[in-house]
Amino acid sequence: MPDVNEIKAVELAKVLKEKQEAVNKAVDEVKGIGEELKGKLAKGDKVTEELKNDVDKLLTEVNGLKSQVHDMEQAQARNPVTPEGAKTLGSMVVKSDQFKSCANISQGDRLHIPINVKELGSSEYMSYSAGALVQPHVTGLVSLPEQRLLVRDLLTPGNTDSNMIIVPREEFFKNNADVTDEGRTKPESNLSFTQETVTVVTIAHWLKATRQILSDASGLQSMIDGRLRYGLKLKEEQQLLNGTGNGMQLTGLIPNATKFKNESNIKTFTIIDQLRLAMLQVVLSGYSATGHVLNPVQWAEIEMAKDDIGRYVIGNPQGQAIPTLWGQPVVATPSMKQGEFLTGAFKMGAQIFDRWDMSINIAFNNDDDFVRNMVTILCEERLALAIYRKDAFVTGTLQGVSAEPQKAAQKAAQEAEGSKTQ
């Protein structure tokens, strides 16, 4: 048998399950022989040497299997690829060296705890875990994330060390590529850029807390996860979508997106149809749409749309997958105004640049914290959004008469009937 420490976590879990089943089977066999022995002894029958040997053999086998199971359970617990407990911003703060040393900090000092958000992911909802004590079953499959997507998840990530980003924005491209004869001058295509400066902005907020919370790691963790990080990410999403670029606001996607225009000959369409037409508009600009952003109300209407016999067109009440429409992910967020949408080539058309990852500062001498025995906990980040091409994004009001095909058909029929009677 190979060294159990060298078996990968998935293989180890599989072998462990097989060994546990073998132990259970062997125990059942021992119980069966035990019942047979008990019956013979009750009748006064003589127990044969063969039966005794069978019992000894099975007991030896059970003990050996139990030993193997114990070794594998120990190896699984210390295996470097065994999943760890879920990380949250709060748990990273309370486990940091800076926080652990706060007992030695004097009244006038300030505690700064930088956080690597790449270890957290970008999901809005926190993962409250029982910790590494309760390990998830490893199946060998990478499951889809259960949390809702954020606008940040659709965009290309990036980092910067500067306070401003110079964006070379493509304004015009004329493709003159053509087949050419030998010796002829090759055709020249034209491409023009303009430069735009995007300022790195700061998003921050703070909370007051009693100094005693520094002794309550779980309480501090829940405050950071449930309020500070959540509030920061909520404001970030609002700015990514709706920021005007004026003052200290981000340059948002919607104010810079192209207005929806029906490029097809279809005159009557549903909400679902309109989002497909918006994808077409993005394609005609030279990009491929990679996502949609909707208000949760409109996404609920789309998911609940039914055909003529009551079957769901898009939604599945038992579904667990990431929301998608026309093969692309959907972000349903309250930051999107009701009745409006955004469709675009998020990966190619724009990019987030993080100047500061999310960080936590704990101050002991802000205002009257000293006399009130309070602390101030500040959460902040710095970032910029660069939009490379505005026509890679399409926005507008959802003009579709309904998300439901039969209602759209009925409305179209009524309009046609009305035009005949006029």
TrEMBL record:
Mark the transmembrane ranges.
none
Q: Which UniProt keywords apply?
A: Coiled coil
Query: Where along the sequence do coiled-coil regions lie?
Result: 9-75
| The protein, known as | Phage capsid-like C-terminal domain-containing protein
Superkingdom field:
Bacteria
Read off the Gene3D superfamilies from this record: hypothetical protein PF0899 domain, Major capsid protein gp5
Q: What is the first-listed, main subcellular location in coarse terms?
A: virion
Q: Which NCBIfam families match?
A: major_cap_HK97 (TIGR01554)
Instruction: Report the residue ranges that make up the Phage capsid-like C-terminal domain in this protein.
Output: 133-397
Cellular location(s): Virion
The answer to whether UniProt assigns keyword Ribosomal protein to this entry is no
